[in-house]
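Retry 2 of 3 after timeout on previous attempt. Resubmitting structure tokens to design endpoint.
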């Protein structure tokens, strides 16, 4: 025989989750509340070295937020750089998902961190007043047999050409200038980054995010 369900009654899984929350220590309860507020704010943080583990976490967060709705996502970046392909993963995912992603540089945005930063449309690139940028050519160890060294060197050159093209497109600078500037460590203050076409808005409060 069919049974009428009370539309106001919590689902079993929901009740179990509530019971688990009630039984959890205060520190775990606070952590869950922080996680919920963090998710609801639609903010994704990228701090520290760019690695495969970090890229996986960030992309999972982006997918989850895209599934939850189409409101803008704000990504805060403070990173010394790291693994280029992991930066590529996040860069491409920002462009892949439907919601608009606004990026905000804080502290320093270097190397692969800058690669992630330029994934956002130019109008969606923000910085805080003390943000600095570092652009440079990719580097890495080359070793092994002579034939392997040749292959690795060729791949490094292809990567450099690809990254220079991405930064030229993102900033509006001629590719020859990008090549020259990134041949060595190229530091930019926040104001210099705006003049260079890398960043667009310098802000001091969340209310200034458009």
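Retry 2 succeeded. Sequence:
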């Amino acid at each position: 025989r069919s049974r009428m369900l009370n539309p106001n009654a919590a689902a079993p899984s929901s009740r179990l989750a509530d019971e688990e929350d009630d039984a959890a220590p205060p520190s775990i309860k606070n952590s869950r509340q922080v996680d919920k507020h963090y998710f609801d704010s639609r903010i994704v943080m990228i701090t520290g070295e760019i690695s495969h583990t970090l890229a996986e976490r960030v992309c999972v967060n982006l997918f989850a937020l895209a599934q939850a709705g189409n409101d803008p996502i704000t990504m805060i970046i403070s990173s010394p750089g790291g693994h280029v392909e992991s930066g590529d993963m996040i860069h491409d995912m920002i462009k892949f998902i439907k919601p608009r992603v606004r990026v905000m540089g804080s502290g320093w945005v270097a190397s692969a961190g800058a690669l992630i930063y330029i994934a956002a449309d130019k109008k969606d690139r923000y910085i805080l007043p003390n943000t600095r940028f570092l652009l440079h050519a990719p580097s890495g160890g080359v070793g092994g047999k002579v034939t392997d060294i040749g292959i690795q060197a060729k791949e490094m050159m292809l990567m450099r050409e690809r990254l220079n093209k991405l930064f030229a497109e993102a900033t509006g600078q001629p590719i020859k200038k990008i090549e020259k500037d990134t041949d060595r460590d190229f530091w930019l203050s926040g104001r210099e980054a705006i003049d260079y076409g890398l960043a667009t808005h310098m802000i001091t409060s969340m209310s200034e995010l458009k």
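Attempt log closed. The helical segments are 12-23, 26-40, 52-68, 84-96, 112-117, 146-171, 175-181, 190-196.
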